[in-house]
Design goal:
The chain is mainly beta and 365 residues long. The protein has two helices and 20 strands. The longest helix has 23 residues. Bound molecules: copper (II) ion.
Amino acid sequence: MKRFILFVIMCLLLNWAAAGAADMDTDAQPCHEGHEHAGHSMDNMGAGAQLLYNPAFGDDIYHTHPAGMWMVNYKYMYTNMSGLRSGSNNVDTNSVGWNSNKPYNYMMIPTGMTMNMHMFMVMYGVTDRLTLMGMANYQANNMEMLMNMGMGRPYMSQPVMRTEGFGDTELRGIYKINKYLVGSLGLSLPTGSIKQTAPMMGMEFRAPYDMQLGSGTYDLKPALTYNGLSGDAKWNWGGQAMYTYHISKNDGGYSLGDSLKLTSWVQRAFGPAATWLRLAFNDTGRIRGQDSEIQKILDPVTGAPSPDADPRNYGGRRLDGLVGASIHTGRLGFGVEGGIPIYQYVNGLQLKTSWILNAGIQVMF
Ligand SMILES: [Cu+2]
């Protein structure tokens, strides 16, 4: 609830920023008329004008297209997690072990994880104000773990736990409210599996929540985006607030925590290239409910207790700083963006994010 209230407040702020920008607008910018969005102006905007690319190779920055225009985008998103954290403190592997009076009592100790996501997105401008978007993704997750059986026994490395497959599918309607503001509503369909399995200690379990591929629920994802462009079209800046609401519990008996995502950026164009700085903040709640199959991992006798099988070890807040660059040739654009967390707070005991990389290619026609 507090996240949703914060989402509403951020929307009011974005609205206020847009109203302020409209007030400062002079009538001396005729070249901007008819351009739906800086990131998608395909024609030259006259002397000194630049084609600006959306910093959409990282988080999606929602925008509209002119009627009849298509955009197809492929994006690769990589997340590298390494080491454990509790709250905002790092936790040494030696503080986690089984029945040996360590601060954290677990047999399985995650030490690192990589997430590879391939995203495919299609957009189409139905009218000059309304754009529809569809997005699918394919993911591959790998987790490295140590095992500790206590009683002074050593930490033993375990085979990498892997899951792979299609994730959830998103459909989104995007509406251009005015020159600066875009409102949108996404519906996420539960196409990603929540029943991936993984072997641990020679037994087959349903894999922990973070190794599953989807939310298992229909999710509503409203967003509001503010986008500004300087008079010479060289500078582009903006902000976006998005909320994810999991409508119900899934077949497994739980729902992932609702989340608030805020991002803001400043971008500068240099001829056919552009470079940007971006901040991205994410606040996600704990998992509500539990999956009785995943819960079996926590059984001290027949399981392999691992922190990520406990729904209390989910959610938290993270602020990332990112830098990116893009280049375009005609209808084709390429972009890459890298980032590291500036601030990271996790509920309970979790792996921490160490760096992220996004790279994409998009074509408009
Ligand atoms: Cu687009």
